[in-house]
TrEMBL record:
Pfam families cross-referenced by the UniProt entry: FBA_3
Cited InterPro entries: F-box-assoc_dom_typ3
Domain F-box associated beta-propeller type as annotated: residue spans: 4-162
Name used for this protein in its record: F-box associated beta-propeller type 3 domain-containing protein
Organism: Malus baccata
Length: 182
């Protein structure tokens, strides 16, 4: 899996985004989960009223217990926004809940944000993503508090690529299906 693509480890499975074309301009979006314990795949459908414009980028993130979808978008007035959806009960597709739509301030050009890291306290570190032809170091990492919906600049800027990975202590015995771990 590429670090530029979204994937997250939640509930014993690696989750990544998947697209299936339905027509020339319509796609079905879902999340594929590979369960490392049972060595099997399963599909989790996106929320029922989830819209996917053709040029929108989607990102998944997780806090270890739930899956969150981040979808950059535009408001009716043309401002950049970010739709945030969370699956409240893991594996229950009916539990998808739209947490919020945030209007995001951006410097003079249109800048979208993608999640870099999901903190235990409910904050999300967002990375600015610009058009490929733009080379601007003024965009900096921001922290988003999902409860207060406040953005805070972290003072980290000037880097072209950011990558973070969560570490979870676990033991999966691949050759033992009846193993008990503590």
């Amino acid at each position: 899996m590429s670090p530029r693509k979204s994937h997250v480890f939640v509930n014993g499975a690696i989750h990544f985004e998947a697209w299936r074309p339905l027509t020339n301009f319509d796609y079905e979006y879902s999340i594929l989960a590979f369960d490392v314990g049972s060595d099997s795949f399963r599909r989790i459908m996106a929320p029922k009223n989830f819209s996917i414009p053709g040029t929108t980028q989607l990102f998944i993130s997780g806090n270890g217990n739930s899956i969150t979808l981040f979808q950059p978008c535009f408001t009716s007035t043309g401002e950049i926004c970010l739709d945030i959806w969370e699956m409240k009960e893991y594996g229950i597709e009916e539990s998808w809940t739209k947490l919020t739509t945030l209007s995001l301030p951006s410097p003079r050009r249109r800048v979208f944000y993608r999640p870099l890291w999901f903190g235990k306290s409910g904050d999300v570190v967002l990375v600015p993503i610009t058009c490929l032809w733009e080379d601007d170091d003024r965009y900096e990492l921001v922290s988003l508090d999902l409860v207060s919906k406040q953005l805070k600049n972290l003072g980290i800027q000037g880097y072209k690529y950011y990558y973070a990975e969560s570490y979870v202590v676990s033991l999966v015995l691949l050759d033992k299906t009846d193993a008990v771990s503590y």
